[in-house]
Amino acid sequence: MGKIKVKDFNLTHTLDCGQIFRINRVNDWYFVNAQDNFFKIKQIRNEIEFHGVDKEFVVHFFSLNENLPKILKEINKDKYIEKSIDKYRGLRLIKQDPWECLISFICSSASNIPRIKSKLKALSECFGKKITLDGVCNYTFPPPGKINDYGKIMDAKTGFRARYILEANNTIDTKHLNSLRTQPYNLAKNELKKINGVGDKVADCVLLFSLGFNQAFPVDTWIKKTVQLLYFDNNNVSNDRIREFGLDYFGAHAGYAQQYLFMYSRNDLNKGSSLLMA
């Protein structure tokens, strides 16, 4: 069992903000799947305890080596993002495997978090390998080349996404995805968009949550509604315009701003929150 003292980290906010899906909470513990890794982790105040992976993995996976106070200071441009930061401080970007991230967000198209989790669980059970931790059974995420049966992909209730998943399985390899880390943002994004089923939002999610492009600003329904309300006088504007706004306004760490606004939007903005009141 490993332990790490942490500063400026909130495990719950980080795991519950929709950037990763193969997680389950059992009492105080989160059981987390990350490709071949299956581990459990919990936080008590300024200490995290974990089992199933080593300290190096945890520090990298949860971006614990990033200077979060500096990042938050850079994106704290106005009263709206400030309120989001105040409530969800400690949320960090996860550095997950790009292949698993790609398939996860292909599955996210026209879906919600419970259904995405269900699809990924079914794909892992069908094509992955069984793995056990402290009596809890789960499955590894299948690598490229292993999600190779269209009928079984359909049985995972992936619907129209099934053909995209099979095509990605047959044409994409981890080496190619990892090579995108060294490309400029726009070139890396265009490469991802060559994959059928990958548009702007999915590409930006893969760039942000697995490839280290902190400037990526994914635009989904929640972000579109929130940014229009807060920054465009509730006028309808295109996803491209919102994406450009996020990049220009928040800068090199726009993806962090996106996650903080996403959490406030999903959890507070439609519940009479005071985000607009100042």
The structure class reads alpha+beta
The oligomeric state is single chain
- Specify the CATH class of the domain at 98-210: Mainly Alpha
Helix and strand element order: EHEEEEHHHHHEEHHHHHHHH
CATH architecture of the domain at 98-210: Orthogonal Bundle
What is the CA-atom radius of gyration, in angstroms?
Answer: 18 Å
Structure description:
- The protein is α+β, with helices and mostly antiparallel strands and 278 residues long.
- Among the domains are: 2-66, TATA-Binding Protein; 98-210, Endonuclease III, domain 1.
- The chain is built from 14 helices and 7 strands.
- It has helices at 11-15, 55-61, 68-75, 79-88, 98-107, 113-127, 150-155, 162-171, 174-179, 185-193, 200-210, 221-231, 239-250, 254-267; strands at residues 2-5, 23-26, 29-34, 37-44, 47-51, 130-133, 136-139.
- Strands 1-5-4-3-2 form a 5-stranded antiparallel sheet. Strands 6-7 form a two-stranded antiparallel ribbon.
- Strand 2 and strand 3 form a beta hairpin.
- The chain is globular.
Short descriptors:
278 residues; alpha+beta; TATA-Binding Protein; Endonuclease III, domain 1; five-stranded antiparallel β-sheet; two-stranded antiparallel sheet; 48% helix; globular
